[in-house]
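User: Can you help me understand a structure? I only have the sequence.
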Amino acid sequence: MIKIAVMGYGTIGSGVVKVIETNQESIQKKTGEGIEVKYILDVRDFEGDPIQSKVVHDYQVIAKDPEVDIVVETMGGVEPAYTFVKAMLLAGKSVTTSNKALVAVYGADLTAAAKEHNVNFMFEASVGGGIPIIRALNSCLTADRIEEITGIVNGTTNYMLTKMSEDGCEFDEVLKEAQDKGYAEKDPTADIEGQDAGRKIAILTSLIAGQQVDYEDVHTEGITHISATDIQYAKQMGRAVKLLASCVQAGDTYTVMVAPFLLPNEHPLYSVNGVFNAVFVRGNMLGDAMFYGSGAGSLPTASAVAADVIELAKHIGRHIELEWKPQKLELADYKQQSMRFFVRAAQEKEEIEQAFGSVDYVETPAHKKGKEIGFITREMKEAEYEEKAAKLSSIIQMIRFR
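Assistant: Let's start by predicting it. Here is the structure, written out as tokens:
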């Protein structure tokens, strides 16, 4: 019997315990022996709960117990998670985590510690919830040179943009509904400002580059400025507004950013709606592929963590090689990436054409009322767009084309 510990018995941690208990028979077939939760680390006691006897309050109890081979971290946040996880690795225990904040900051350090002590550090659930994107990059796609990863990796914002499109609602109204349904936190800043997606694309870029990508270096925009009028224009163009986390090869490095984009209906990510997530991958040999599934929630995320537990159980005493060097990767300037831009402006056509030259106009009821003009630029670098946009005094909105 393989004994494990779970640090943090919240939504995800309790889900992991449920997955392991519910699927014990199938897990035993995959690992060759059963998995038993010996400890649960939490500040609470859970009186009357069946797991009460397993609860401990000191992480050192777990670190010092030689019977525990695998530790699950689902506490969230950087500290004390980092201290606890590092202690487990140094004690010769493998760790899996769903904690994107921890992985984004200390992924390289914890990977190195795992290698040094012949154990493993896994983090499948830190990026796409139940989507097995990290395992795919580390195993199935290792023969490819990854040229692009673009994903919808935040279920909260995808739900909100979908509702705005379906119901014609404004941002504030949809945010309140998302909070009422439990899809958005009381403080939704990390989601709606793109910070959550920024951490996730930093992790994915670190893995394909083999060295550290600091999420602070990722140009990040959220969806707070997206309005019902923007959605109306998008529909008129046969497109959808999606918050994309994108990593595109640029020579020896990558252009990495998070921002709203207008996707055409032929793009694989166009039809990813609601709380679902998806990650589009382009490899130089594979071509295009997409990974799709539930990006959040207790059981989908717990399922990904439990899958890591099974993988760790199969490799007790053997380190799985993962290249993630601590040396920082200098990212390409996102302003040198070329694309088209959709712009709304309260300007005359003559002024627009003086600034941008030939453009394609987009008509909606707002356009026809003479309040504003919507137009699409020719393809240009973002730096060039900014120079031209500075010549106009009344730009209302800009959304990038994909």
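Now, to help you interpret it: The first strand starts at residue 2 and ends at 7. The chain has 16 helices and 20 strands. Let me know which part you'd like to focus on.
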